[in-house]
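Our preliminary data section would be incomplete without showing what the modeling component actually yields. Below, a chain of 192 amino acids is followed by its predicted structure, encoded as tokens that our downstream tools consume directly.
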Amino acid sequence: MPSLTLGYARVSTAEQDAALQVNALQAAGCDRVFVETASGAKADRPELARVLEQLRAGDTLLIWRLDRLGRSMPELIKITNELAARAVALRSLQEHIDTSTAAGNLIFHVFAALAEFERALIRERTTAGLQAARARGRHGGRPVVLTPAKRAAAQAMYDSREHSVAAIATAVGVSRATLYRSLTLKTQTARI
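Predicted structure:
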């Protein structure tokens, strides 16, 4: 049986379009392209599993760029080593890597290390930016909906036993779930 070149394209969200990757993989001679919409960080990528399962000795897995295959250096190296153990080559179009050659295998490991380094730098910059924002008094997350004044009014309404939880939630403009998390509610399931 002749060797096959199978392609794998991945986009992270449904809003992204895999056409650029698919077109490039088809132009490079893929016999079939597997397309996936999933975050690279997700462990469950069914199309990746499907393409890896179909590859046989002498075949080639063709990807558009290394980060489409895996998000971490250990993951990329693991996949590449598994492919090598099965005598399957890995080619990346953007990085011009072909692991069927010694030079291509070396370049793969260098690029994988650089990609991991870049992600680590991004994480460090993000952390530093968040710390700087906190130092300036800015905090991330959702704004507080139930202010202390609203909380006190809601608690007073609840303690008066004249209002249902739903009515209190409507009066202060929050959901019942927010009230349950925020107030000291006595067990009165009949008033819910």
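Helices lie at 19-27, 46-54, 66-69, 73-85, 102-135, 148-159, 165-172, 176-182. DSSP finds eight helices and five strands in the chain. Preliminary results of this kind motivate Aim 1 of the renewal.
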